[in-house]
Amino acid sequence: MRGAAGNSPVLPTRPTILLAVLLAVASAQCAARLPQRPSGTPSDAPGAVELFTAATAHCARLTTLTAELGLSGHAGEESLRGRIIAGLEAGGNVRLEGVAPFGPPVFILAARSEQATLLLPRERRVLQSTTVSAVLERLTGLRLSADELRQALTGCLGAGTGATEGRQWPGGWRSVRSGTGETIFLREQAGVWAVTAVDAGSWQADYADTLNAYPRTVRLRSTDGRVDLIARVQQLEINTAIEPAAFEVSIPADAEPMTLDELRAVAPLRTTQP
User: Fold this and answer.
1) Which end of the chain is more exposed for a tag (fewer CB within 10 A), N or C?
2) Residue 197 — left, alpha, or beta (φ > 0 → left; ψ -120 to 50 → alpha)?
3) Could you give all domains of the chain from N- to C-terminal order, each with its CATH number?
4) Which pTM was predicted?
């Protein structure tokens, strides 16, 4: 299958998917109910580390994922809704496409080893020589690397890093401290312990609708409340081969270069707004 812009290959697992990313500016935003966190004074729970290790055992085998992401939420005062097709591979490789109902994609973000190129086919603009985290910060307000995004979407943050500091609260909550600094919360669901939330410094993740060890609803939000995005994960496929060319983008000869500051002004997620 070939991409809609630059005739570049796209992810091989979606033969005929029409994607749309629609961004509407709202003057007021109704805040969604904040996800739960445990309250009260915790006590030691050394067994929580073992529960976390078992709950994330599948993460050690996670190398690639492809999925459709149905997005909703807000970034600042802007309300975000739409769909993105995503492909991520361990090692900082990623491809994200936001495609309008008709015509070229709204944007194509492709990266190898966290080095990103962002193409805006409709504006014939291109951003090169930057990082995935810098681009995602401009697009969503959350500064995540490609590998962090892959782990965040699958509930695998902190897996395999040597968790410590097991804690427990009334109501069935457990937590651990990962080797990379996240506080990771677990709860028992249908007799199986699963990661339900992560506090990662300036941002947080919350998980629901776990199926076959992977969450199907992922909420990512900044601790200051400015960014709150929900991704409903559909068509999830794990460890399927992704064409190496998917992590590249063919740049049209007439594409004009742009900077990160200009990307903020262009706001590509608003380009489909009538």
Assistant:
1) C
2) beta
3) 21-25+43-268 (2.50.20.10)
4) 0.84
